């Protein structure tokens, strides 16, 4: 092939090449189980040679998977970015919309990652996932205006976050039924319902529920 | 050692020996992370030689762990056995009492198993855990008198089961606070609350909530 046949070709920087490989890997891992993705597939999808993939990820598939997962985790954490203005439940609703779009776009990878027993699961991948859960909880406390959440509020929020994950997995398993808007509204209502249960035993959570009710009246 | 020094000694049958080794293993796996249990520890706890452990479990620790897990899963499923009589929420409450005792007794093993990323986690261990979750859901449908649960009721029940698991892990993580009776009552109330949310969109769940309300009036 003569240079004129590939006029757009230019040498990528190390960072650009790395990003390009990660992006190709993430797309593959999004829709296939990790065991069904080979480095050959990644090389082919990125239009590069297999040795080049190994040069960037000498640890092979495991290293590539973890790097792709870290990049997905960052993307997922951006879903939670939401200005602290407007009714609280509308903010939650918008964050859930973004989260559920992410789940929709990374369906197979999301299931493989969270359903456990995957060949690429390690204490490091678990730590990355736990980091996302912790970030989600912190965002919620911040929006609720709670600086120092007590044990009962923490348990309620963390349990609800797990319920969101579980519902997302079931939703994927049920061919994405019910419609995503219904799922989102159901999750928001569950949030209020579980906080309300806790509120009867915990003054801090009762204050949060009070604020949510005020909020609805604005 | 002369025979008279061990008068109680008798040769165990294959099944008895297997049970004895499993029981010793389960006790060790209950309170230590799987990576901190060696076959030597199991041999020592059971008072037998390491080669004997290998004779029964030639697949080594992984095989022993899976066998111990299967035995724990059976024990856990017995927690759900509850006669179909008396108020529904009292039955749920009793089943949760047994479940939470199990969690209390197998604390470290329960966390290691469910928190993911464990060295002994495989698609087989995941399948065993999923079997327990499915059994729990089936028990609930039966008690609710629902022969053919629809997608919305299924999602609600399965999500609640995951929430119970998550709450149990958080409870262990928080040094078993709040008191177990409060946790149990909170989980029962959560069950009613999440079903109530679903009931507004799903006639089948609305009927279940109606029956629970009737029940409370008996």
TrEMBL record, chains A, B:
Which SUPFAM superfamilies does this entry report, sorted A to Z?
A: Homeodomain-like (SSF46689)
Question: Pfam families from the entry?
Answer: TetR_C_46, TetR_N
Q: Which residues form a coiled coil?
A: none
User: Residues annotated as DNA-binding region?
Assistant: 38-57
Q: Which GO terms describe its molecular function?
A: DNA-binding transcription factor activity; transcription cis-regulatory region binding
The secretion signal range is: none
Q: Which UniProt keywords apply?
A: DNA-binding, Transcription, Transcription regulation
Give the protein's recorded name. Answer: TetR family transcriptional regulator
Query: To which species is this protein native?
Result: Streptomyces roseochromogenus subsp. oscitans DS 12.976
């Amino acid at each position: 092939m003569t240079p004129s046949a590939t006029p757009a070709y230019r040498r990528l920087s190390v960072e650009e090449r790395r990003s390009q490989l990660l992006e190709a890997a993430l797309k593959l891992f999004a829709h296939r189980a990790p065991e069904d993705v080979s480095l050959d597939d990644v090389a082919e999808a990125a239009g590069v040679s297999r040795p080049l993939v190994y040069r960037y990820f000498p640890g092979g598939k495991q290293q590539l998977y973890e790097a792709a997962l870290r990049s997905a985790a960052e993307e997922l954490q951006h879903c939670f970015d939401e200005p602290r203005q407007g009714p609280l439940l509308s903010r939650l609703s918008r964050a859930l919309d973004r989260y559920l779009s992410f789940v929709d776009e990374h369906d197979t990878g999301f299931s493989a990652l969270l359903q456990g027993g995957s060949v690429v699961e390690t204490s490091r991948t678990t730590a990355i996932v736990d980091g996302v859960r912790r970030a989600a909880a912190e965002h919620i406390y911040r929006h609720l205006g709670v600086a120092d959440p007590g044990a009962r509020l923490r348990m309620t929020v963390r349990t609800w976050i797990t319920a969101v994950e579980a519902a997302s997995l079931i939703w994927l398993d049920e061919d994405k039924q019910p419609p995503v808007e219904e799922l989102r509204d159901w999750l928001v209502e569950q949030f209020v319902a579980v906080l309300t249960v806790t509120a009867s035993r915990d003054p801090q959570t009762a204050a949060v529920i009070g604020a949510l009710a005020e909020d609805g009246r604005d």
